[in-house]
Design a protein that fits this description.
three-stranded mixed sheet, magnesium, 19 helices, 530 residues, TIM Barrel, 2 domains, metal ion binding, single chain, Isocitrate_lyase, alpha/beta, metal-binding, lyase
């Protein structure tokens, strides 16, 4: 809808009413409608699902067309991220938001900070989705409100060319609304619990839900020890539950990301049900660690025995009751997990790895693509990796294999700042810089995200401000370290009253009260200093 067509629509509607509507302005009504393009979370989910599907097709045609996101733990953080993207790049093309279960646990639970073990309230997940989209919709309203005020000024000045230019900007306004990839952990319960939570997430606006194959009541962060996976049948039931939720709510293009933690998960809580050799249950059980038994004498009281690989196997069972997988079987289990998930309804994969290594990721993806040629990943560029040390060691190892002299470097101490200006460190930084493009091209990574970057940036910026403000710099610590940079970098938030909605509130007061409106943005508003 264009500005003029929306105005005409409201003029017709208001003109059809009796005199009690005479003080309702078609232009004001049109502006408010354009500032609130998305009426519900489902409108957002349908719109953003279409974006993701088109982006996936673009990537299939050209692997350089990968997508990216940053994890955001508050609506304001997500809003400022998208405002910054529009400012620096002109549009939000292929830029998403990520909703991290880790950050919800650490920052948004009523219990206080929690580890990433699905102990936080499940309702916190859809609540954050709704909050993020509330702030993004406000960013739309704020930006359009500024254009409307400029339009009024141009018309008042009789500048028809400027007014036409502004009206074109309004008609071609790009929304701040982008897809969210939302973390549902392991589903917070059984498949019915997964379905109910998925519905709430979709209703809040989520077009993409990421679910992992861990046991929901034993769930661990992907970068912690003690991870326990479930048999494929259990996981696939939850994938179907999410799909049914999308279909029920009228979002057929909804995207499901199936995450496997099998690379680092050496445990299972269950022995899978199997009906015949070679079925999924049998394949899952074939990875169990244990001893083959020849007779009943090999079985102690309480031991469990399964038939696997055509033989009787006594799986190794821990004191916790959990069973172990064979050491070194992780990559094979990942490949099976991924193929199985894609063949049973998942759209994208997530392989949780212990290091950022394009070769390692590519080796698994290439095996998966032998069965599912268009398999592609969402990949966690995790802050849990020591990127500097990992890549310096990758360069060190590569050079050593090539026969290059690396005697000037201590592999264990490569994190040291003394190496920062060396040839090795420069090459490592180059590889970090191109990691996303390299991973997209060589390892099937469609979407690169950082799970909890804004957790770290909040801590870092607060540390820097506290050090200066409470130290000798005093107020200069804030002025030099924050405000002066905001002004010179054109950070819109320097006008914090405007960002919080003060000017929009003034617009509405004028709409509602006319000349009697008491506005906050007059000449005595200190924001006029900026």
């Amino acid at each position: 809808m264009t500005y003029q067509s929306t105005l005409d629509q409201f003029a017709t509607l208001i003109g059809s009413k009796d005199s009690s509507w005479q003080e309702i302005s078609p232009e004001y009504a049109a502006r408010m409608a354009l500032q609130n393009r998305f009426q519900t979370g489902l409108d957002i989910a349908r719109y953003t699902a279409g974006i993701m599907r088109r982006d996936m097709a673009d990537y299939d045609a050209d692997s350089s067309q990968y997508t990216q996101s940053l994890g955001c733990w508050h609506g304001f953080i997500g809003q400022q991220k998208m405002i910054a993207i529009k400012k620096h790049f002109g549009n939000t093309h292929k830029k998403y938001l990520y909703l991290s279960g880790w950050m919800i646990a650490a920052l948004r639970s009523e219990f206080g900070p929690l580890p990433d073990q699905s102990m936080h309230e499940k309702t916190a997940v859809p609540m954050l989705i709704e909050e993020l989209y509330t702030f993004l919709r406000q960013a739309d309203a704020r930006e359009l409100g500024g254009l409307f005020r400029q339009l009024d000024a141009a018309k008042a000045a009789g500048d028809t060319a400027k007014a036409a230019e502004l009206q074109q900007q309004i008609d071609n306004h790009q929304t701040h609304i982008v897809p969210i990839i939302a973390d549902i952990d392991a589903g917070f319960g059984n498949e019915e619990a997964t379905y109910l939570l998925a519905k709430k997430m979709i209703e809040a606006g989520a077009c993409c839900i990421q679910i992992e194959n861990q046991v929901s009541d034993e769930k661990q962060c992907g970068h912690q020890d003690g991870k326990v996976t479930v048999p494929h049948a259990d996981f696939l039931a939850k994938i179907r539950a999410v799909r049914y939720a999308f279909l029920e709510l009228g979002v057929p293009d909804g995207v499901i990301v199936a995450r496997t933690d099998s690379l680092g998960a050496g445990l299972t809580k269950q022995i899978a049900v199997t009906k015949e050799p070679g079925d999924l249950g049998d394949l899952y059980n074939s990875f169990l660690d244990g001893d083959y038994v020849q007779s009943a004498d090999d079985i102690a009281n309480g031991d469990v025995v399964v038939k696997a690989n055509g033989k009787l196997l006594k799986p190794k069972r821990l004191a916790s009751g959990l069973f172990q997988f064979r050491p070194g079987s992780g990559e094979d289990r990942v490949v099976l997990d991924c193929i199985t998930s894609l063949q049973h309804g998942a759209d994208l994969l997530w392989i949780e790895t212990e290091k950022p290594h394009v070769g390692q990721i590519a080796a698994m993806v290439n095996r998966i693509r032998e069965v599912v040629p268009n398999a592609k990943l969402v990949y966690n560029n995790s802050p849990s990796f020591n990127w500097t040390l990992n890549f310096r060691q990758q360069v060190f190892d590569g050079w050593q294999q090539e026969g290059k002299d690396v005697s000037a470097y201590d592999r264990v101490k490569l994190m040291s700042a003394e190496y920062d200006s060396t040839e090795l460190a420069i090459e490592a930084d180059r590889r970090i810089q191109t990691f996303q493009a390299d991973g997209a091209r060589e390892a099937g990574i469609f979407h690169h995200l950082i799970t909890l970057p804004t957790y770290h940036t909040a801590a870092l910026s607060t540390d820097n401000l506290a050090k200066e403000y409470f130290g000798e710099a005093g107020m200069l610590g804030y002025v030099e370290g924050v405000q002066r940079k905001e002004i010179r970098q054109g950070i819109a938030c320097v006008k914090h009253q405007n960002m919080a909605g003060s000017d929009m509130g003034d617009d509405h007061k004028e709409y509602f009260s006319g000349d009697a409106a008491l506005k906050a943005s007059g000449k005595d508003n200190t924001m006029n200093q900026f």
